[in-house]
Structures are given as C-alpha cells and as structure tokens.
Amino acid sequence: MGESSLLPSADSDALLRTIGNTPLIPLLRIGREFPRVRILAKAEWYNPGGSVKDRPAYRMIRAAEVSGELGLGKMVLDATSGNTGIAYAMIAARRGYRCKLLMPANASAERKKLLKAYGAEVVLTDPAEGSDGAFHAAQRLHKEQPDLYFYPDQYGNPENPRAHYETTGPEIIQQTEGKITHFLAGLGTSGTLMGAGKRLREFNPDIRLVAIQPDGPFHGLEGLKHMETASHVPALYDAKVPDQVVGISTEAAQQMARRMTREEGLHVGVSAGAAICAALMVAAAIRQGVIVAICPDAGARYQSEKFWEAT
Questions:
Q1: Rounded-to-integer distance, Cα 11 and Cα 26, Å
Q2: Residue 12 and residue 226: Cα distance in Å, rounded?
Q3: Architecture of domain 3-46+168-309
Q4: pLDDT by residue (tens digit) across 173-216?
C-alpha cells in the first residue's frame, strides 16, 4: 500500500470537487457594435485556486496519486509563470505534500506572495529567460534528485489537455446549448486549446479554434508564449490544431483588462484582456456567431502593476 493511499480520497474532497463548472458570462457593452455576435467569457477565476490552471493541476496530481507515482514522501516540483504553481500549492496544501516551484523573477508580486502563503518553496529564475528558463531549471533539479521530486511537467503531461477535454469542453457545449461557433484560448502550455478544442471539434467540426499569443517575443503577458520564438515549445502543442493564431500586444491586453473591469464589472487579468481583444477581432470578421473566450484569472493577481492606474 503506497503512502498516498493513506490520504482521504481526493475525489470526495469538498474543496477539490469545486474545480470546474465555472460560469459563462455574456458581455453586455464590449462588442455591442456587433449585434449578431455573442461574446461569452468563461470565468475561470471561480475555481478555488483562482484560475483555469486548477483543472490540469488537479488532474496531474490525482493521476500520479492513483498510479502510485506521488506519495507523501515526495515533493511536487514544476516550472510555472504563476497560476499553475498556485494551483499546485493549493492542492499540495490540501493533500499534505511539500511543493517547490520555479518561476521567473518578474512574475507579479501578488502571485509570489500567494504561493508563499500556501507554503510553497519558490525559486526565482532569470526574468530575461521567461517561463522557458524556469522550465529548464526544473528539469535540471528533477534530473539531479529524481527520487525526491514528483515532476508533473505541465508542458508535456497529457493529463493537462485531458482535463480540458473532459471538463472545459463539455461545460461549454452544455452552457451554450451547442451553439458555440468560435473557441478562443491563450497559448502557454497550450493544454486548454488542445484539450477543449479537441472535444469541441468532435462535437461540431465547424467550430473554429482561435489561439492567442503575444504579438512578439518581448511582452508582459504572464503565462502566454510567443510560439515562433520560444526556446521551448511545449510538447503538448500541435500547430495544426488552431484555425487561426492571433497576436495581441501587452498594451492592448492591459487596456482591455481595465475596460472589462470598468464596463462589464469583471475584474480580469491581462491574459483575459488579450482573449477579449482577440474575440473582438473575430467578431469584426464574422456576420454572426457565438464566441467563447477563456478568461484564465482575475485582476487581483496583477493589482500592483501600474497599468491599473491609467485613466
């Protein structure tokens, strides 16, 4: 009997069972110049850890518990830009694991503080190397002490897109009554687009999948990758899956995050701002449709950033 079997079943845990089933919220003012297009925000900050990353983090940890790969003697180790790390830290605290996370030093102050609040050990990496630098550092640590660490590798673990295939995709189909025409998600690990997109395409091959990335290699969109210039392209990513890839500038995403807060009452983060920018671009190109945009987290995780002070 492995040590993980001494834990209560995660499947019956009241906290972890709240992951998923997030609301789909229609925009009332932004995009109203397109009266025959509905833009719906998938409000992933309603997850208990505050972001879309709760879904794959839980799935990866739970699969490792079931297989016996993860027990109470091991430490959860991975690279993160913030949100997956927070999800790991929240679940680890609940399940009784130690947790070490590597993240770029320029991640928002709120994310760093939240990780430490959950009891995670945080190792900051070179901000110039972004999430790629944190990924390579995590690989080195795991290689040095493989018996100490459970290394989920969110960028290559098939449980990541599987979480979205089994939860995010079906939720959207049910919430839109099958009327979705366009699905938009940012490219970080790419698990959301790959997993939910696969499920949506199985439901209706005509649904268009739109990937969102920064408009260049130097950007301030935490959690997103500019795939063409990334030193590490996630193993999960298949460039043939998206029908369209949209590049969004940091400034446009920040401005949209402010607009979403002030005009829609939805205090979202910058990656959500990028998603809504892309949704407006799609809306301008179609006559009618139902656009679902993944909004990964809330603005509270970026509140110390100066762009919120703009008028």
A1: 31
A2: 39
A3: 3-Layer(aba) Sandwich (3.40)
A4: 999 999 999 999 999 999 999 999 999 999 999 999 999 999 99
**In this structure, are residues 207 and 169 in contact, taking their beta carbons and an 8 Å threshold?**
no
Q: Which fold has domain 54-150?
A: Rossmann fold (3.40.50)
Q: With a threshold of 0.85, does the pTM exceed it?
A: yes
Task: Choose, from 4, 51, 131, 271, the residue flagged as catalytic.
Answer: 271
Work out the number of other CB atoms within 10 angstroms of the CB of residue 311: 3
Residue range 242-300, pLDDT digits in tens: 999 999 999 999 999 999 999 999 999 999 999 999 999 999 999 899 999 999 999 99
Catalytic residue among 53, 74, 112, 225: 53
Q: Domain boundaries in the chain? A: 3-46+168-309, 54-150
Residues counted in the chain: 311
- The verdict on whether 271 is a catalytic residue reads yes
Q: What are the CA-CA distances from residue 228 to residues 146, 206, 214, 233 (Å)?
A: 31, 26, 10, 8
State the first-to-last Cα distance of the chain, in angstroms, to the nearest integer. Answer: 60
